[in-house]
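Researcher: I'm preparing a figure for a lab meeting and need a structural model of a single chain. I don't have an experimental structure, so a prediction will have to do for now. The sequence is pasted below. Please return the structure as tokens so I can convert it later.
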Amino acid sequence: MFTKILIANRGEIALRIIRACRELGIHTVAVYSDADGDSLHVRFADEAVCIGAAAPGESYLNVPRIISAAEITDADAIHPGYGFLSEIPHFAEICNSCNITFIGPPADVIARSGDKSKAREIMKEHGVPIIPGSDGIVANPDEAVDLAHQIGYPVILKALAGGGGRGMRVAHTDISLRKSFGTAQSEAERAFGNPHLYLEKYIERPRHVEFQILADHHGNVIHLGERECSFQRRHQKMLEEAPSTAVSPELRKKMGESAIQAAKAFEYRNAGTIEFLLDEKGKYYFIEINTRIQVEHPVTETITSIDLVKEQIAIAAGERLRFEQEEIVIRGHAIECRINAEDPSRNFMPSCGKITALHLPGGPGIRIDTHIYEEYVIPMNYDSMLAKVIAWGSTREEATARMRRALHEMVIEGVSSTIPFQEVILNSRQFRSGKFNTATVEQLLEASYPDTGRH
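Model: Understood. Here is the structure written out token by token.
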């Protein structure tokens, strides 16, 4: 097992990793920017190293400074958390070349997973269902139109190296596809430094369902059930729950087997997420594999009682999985609401500044993952997430009631937050019935904030 782990991240995920390490008896090193000197991850780590200015490129994305911090503190492993460098193959390669263990999958797995076209090829070869689309990159608008005629409209253009909805455009006609092609290329180039696009059939009104997997270095792979992630705004998740109301035990078994097959096809190691689209007829399609710990990992931890961060560390240290698939038991229901420093009534405008009053909810079945505190100043340089509220109940109804109570109790003053819109989601007919899809958030926004000029 490792002696000391450097955490190449900030905020709530850095704290989450510190807590797991402390329980394992592992010393921790926090890195921080000039803007994060007063952050809790700096206070609670055993050591802390300032690595640069507030801009991410000068600090949390600065590989030489992070490696230097690991070397001067004698850290024998680096945990990247999520975001920043967590899915950059080059960073994993450099860690390994410096004899520092990267707590995540191997660099070549990250590279193959990040190439969406290559990932589709691998899944197709191994019998995992994929959405009909191009076999590789689409070179120009004419080629895109020809393929669209073969598979039928609507279609969606996606950035080859993309994520988070950037470089994606839906087209229903030849005209709209040709018009979208250049726009999507430009956006992909700006966001990822790679203008290449691929094309898929666009699945209308799907559910977004993902499976958490664990894979060790000895060929063992298991899944820990699914997470429902359909409540999204602009492809950014807002609320997650587990298990999904759309997945029967029979479908869970089938999708879980496909998730394991996908992980084995990638020769995956460590924790990861296999993401699927589920259509209205119960057919599912692989969309991507995420090679990091996910923001929504607490809902899986809550219903399985398995600490995913500890499992990541153990796998990276070479240990075998501690569980067989038949030992994984799902208990009850969990919901996670992401609370961001944004104003829903003003088109989710970011809200920076000082938190002047704070009360975090508690009580039975409530978990809060956060890095904020009263008088904390929210910097403008980073993601706007303030906290994750996780509610567990023996049934979905009990988990929902506890989440409503928790959001009602939660007080964040000095900045705007997304608490009001999370309450809109929980009280909606769609959520209560369990019948929703990836377009539901936009429908609720239109009904709740009709005059925000979102379009």
